[in-house]
Amino acid sequence: MFELFGIQITWRVLLDIGLVAFIYYNMILLVRGTRAAAVLYGMVVVLIIYYLSDLFNLYTLNALLGEFLASIFLIVVILFKNDIRKALASVGTKRFWTKSNVRDDTLDKLTKAVMTMSGSRTGAIIVIEKGVPLGDIIERGIEIDAKVNTELLETIFATDAPLHDGAVIIRRDRIVAAACILPLSSKLRGQPMYGTRHRAALGISEGSDAITVVVSEERGEVSVAMNGRLTTSLDAVRLRRVLRNALGR
Description:
The chain has 249 residues and is of the alpha+beta class. It folds into two domains: 2-97, no CATH class; 104-246, 3-Layer(aba) Sandwich (YojJ-like (1). It has helices at 11-31, 35-55, 59-70, 72-79, 81-92, 104-119, 135-139, 150-156, 196-207, 236-246; strands at residues 2-4, 7-9, 124-128, 142-147, 167-171, 174-180, 211-215, 222-226, 229-231. The strands form two sheets. It has a seven-stranded mixed sheet with strand order 4-6-5-3-7-8-9, with helices on both faces. A two-stranded antiparallel ribbon has the order 1-2. Strand 1 and strand 2 form a beta hairpin. The chain is elongated and about 70 Å long.
């Protein structure tokens, strides 16, 4: 125990401050660059206006904002339901302090297959599982359980293959399932250049920390979806760099 500016600091106080700082830091990381960040800034503005309305005796405005803030917990749950579910799943799987164990040679085989399919304009969607388990998605697909292989991926997504319409799920260094149906995002509606595969890639990235690679059947364009965002027009070098960075390499 020691004193700082006349305040006694104990190990419990330091632990309390450290835990709060850790929680806030990871909350900021979760919402950074997403629509949730803009909503949080808006809520801060509302709190400031509420404080000023009380300070300057603006009774009607203060009462109105008071009613709004009284239901703030319910509002947060409604606005951030997907983000809260993703955050809780990330905490439950210890995503903050673990890394994916996908090997470099697996990424090489994946990249080679994706670029080959891009050249032939073969539509494909490949999901790499990270910390949040995708068991419910895998159960709805066809079990494969094989090592990631360039030729196998190309065969699965061949136009005349029975499994080409769904998504492939990769866990560690194995293809665990194919023909998996993914949830669709509400984004990209009204944008004809992006189809169902891109909406499905965004959908799984909004509800988990998975990384999804998409090959456009119409243009052969390669994209990656993660954290509810889509990175497009990737060549082999950029695709491998994006995947390595996303996997914490």
